[in-house]
Write a structure and sequence with these properties.
This protein has 137 residues and is an alpha+beta fold. It has one domain. It contains one helix and seven strands; from the N terminus they run H-E-E-E-E-E-E-E. It has one helix at residues 6-63, and strands spanning 68-71, 83-86, 90-94, 101-105, 114-117, 123-127, 133-136. It has a four-stranded antiparallel beta sheet with strand order 4-3-2-5, with helices on one face. Strands 1-6-7 form a three-stranded antiparallel beta sheet, covered by helices on one side. Strand 2 and strand 3 (90-94) form a beta hairpin. The termini are far apart.
Length: 137
């Protein structure tokens, strides 16, 4: 009596193949999630660098007489434009879709909020005789 095992071998192969596909899909999902987290981290670091360097220029214009500087940085971060906002107590770098935002607390004596789009860069930052600063776009 000869038993035909070809059907059983085919089912075993198919079940192993399905298990491997499921494992591969979990692995791919995990890798993509880590990549997205890393990209978020990189964008946050770039936003932090922009905010710190911009607030440094503002600081210099407040404390040095006749200070004039041209602030220039990247016009887009990973393919997206961003805004630099100045308010009375912070310098903020944010993306229009509000996906990323970095805020740096900084006490400024300004009357109204100023928003600079990255497409408007470079801007000139000048000290004023009264002790304030001016931004020319």
């Amino acid at each position: 009596m000869v038993i035909n095992l070809k059907g059983q071998v085919s089912l075993e192969f198919l079940s192993y193949f399905i298990i491997m596909l499921i494992a591969l899909s979990f692995l791919t999902g995990s890798i993509l999630d880590r990549q997205q987290n890393f990209n978020d981290f990189k964008e946050n670091v770039v936003a932090q660098q922009i905010a710190v360097s911009f607030s440094s220029e503002i600081h210099n214009s407040l404390y040095y007489e006749n200070y004039v500087a041209e602030f220039e940085t990247v016009s887009n971060v990973f393919g997206q434009q961003y805004n630099i906002s100045l308010s009375e107590d912070e310098v903020m770098v944010e993306w229009p879709d509000n996906r990323y935002r970095y805020s740096l607390r900084y006490q400024l004596d300004i009357d109204e909020e100023t928003k600079i789009q990255s497409s408007q860069l470079p801007v000139k930052i000048k000290s004023q005789e009264e002790g304030g600063f001016e931004i020319d776009q």
